[in-house]
From TrEMBL:
Signal peptide per UniProt: none
Catalytic activity: Hydrolyzes single-stranded DNA or mismatched double-stranded DNA and polynucleotides, releasing free uracil
UniProt record similarity statement: Belongs to the uracil-DNA glycosylase (UDG) superfamily. Type 4 (UDGa) family.
GO BP: any one term: DNA repair
Transmembrane feature ranges: none
Name assigned to this protein: Type-4 uracil-DNA glycosylase
Keywords: 4Fe-4S, DNA damage, DNA repair, Hydrolase, Iron, Iron-sulfur, Metal-binding
Lineage: Bacteria, Pseudomonadati, Pseudomonadota, Alphaproteobacteria, Hyphomicrobiales
All residue ranges annotated as the Uracil-DNA glycosylase-like domain in the record: 131-281
SMART domains per record: UDG, UreE_C
Source organism: Rhizobium terricola
Region (Disordered): 50-82
Length: 290
């Protein structure tokens, strides 16, 4: 593997650009540092020192001295503490998540448990923990997939442009964001907005199912391909799974739910808004009956 110290400034700039596209959005230092310029200066200084060092290594006879050419032994790397290592998704982590979720007797207790949980890799790279927010008394629940970059930055589900579109969609059927309960399946944003892995989703499942159980909604509106697959247990696309009423939930609370396209999908494919509107009308009709 090529070390960063052996790269040119142009190669370093390309690497930083790649990290930015992959979702790395903040620095590890308190103040910004121009690493490209620093590496360029260091590389130039090494090029100047190298000939002088080689000349000093040559004795008067022209042959390098064994004592001077003997390679130096690098100090052993410092051990990494267990707390600094990322969590590894496995059956033990799933069991811990299930125990933490079942131990919560209210949404407030569950939120504390989710924020304290350290068994999922996604938490190590996320800035915020997204949890259900809104009015629990409404017994109306909206669930999205995983947090976006805007959600992670704001600490709230459905932020940014997608959130503004969601607000307009809800208003079209007489609902307001603050008057319902909104959450996401996955509490932490995956790096680069990639889909969660199967183990990551399994670890997060007890938390979202417990949110549904404690909130006791009478109807649930699901947004997005991942969310529909997660709850329906199928592999079809959102176009195949939308507009159908199914029962979801865990424990002792099963609730009717309908899936539709995510606001972000509607921003990239506005022609699909007609399909989403049909789903919203079906959701509103079910609310009226309930």
């Amino acid at each position: 593997m090529i070390s960063a110290r052996d790269m040119t400034p142009a190669e370093l700039a390309a690497l930083l650009h790649f990290h930015a596209e992959a979702g790395v959005e903040w620095l590890t230092e308190d103040d910004p540092i121009d690493r490209v310029a620093a590496f360029a200066e260091e590389r130039a200084a090494r090029n100047v020192r190298a000939p002088a060092a080689a000349a000093l290594a040559q004795p008067e006879g022209g042959q390098p001295s064994a004592s001077r050419t003997r390679p130096t032994t690098a100090p052993p790397p410092k051990p990494v503490s267990a707390s600094a290592l990322p969590a590894i998704p496995d059956e033990h982590a799933i069991t811990e998540a299930r125990f933490a979720a079942e131990s919560a007797r209210s949404l407030a207790e569950l939120k504390t448990a989710v924020e304290a949980f350290g068994g999922c890799n996604l938490k190590t790279s996320a800035r915020s923990t997204i949890f259900a927010a809104g009015d629990t008394a409404s017994r109306i629940m909206v669930i999205g997939p995983m947090p976006s970059a805007d959600d992670d930055r704001e600490g709230l589900a459905f932020s940014g442009r997608a959130g503004l579109l969601l607000d307009r969609m809800l208003a079209a059927i007489g609902l307001k964001r603050e008057a319902i309960l909104i959450t996401t399946v996955i509490p932490w944003r995956p790096p680069g907005d990639r889909p969660p892995s199967a183990p990551e989703a399994a670890i997060c499942r007890p938390f979202i199912e417990r949110q549904i159980e404690l909130a006791e909604p009478k109807v649930v509106l699901l947004f997005g391909n991942f969310t529909a697959r997660f709850f329906f247990g199928e592999t079809g696309t959102i176009h195949a799974l939308r507009g159908q009423w199914r029962e979801i939930g865990g424990g002792g609370h099963r609730v009717p739910a309908i899936a539709t396209l995510h606001p972000q999908e509607l921003l990239t494919a506005p022609a699909s808004k007609a399909l989403a509107w049909r789903d919203l009308q079906a959701f509103a009709a079910r609310l009226a009956d309930a």
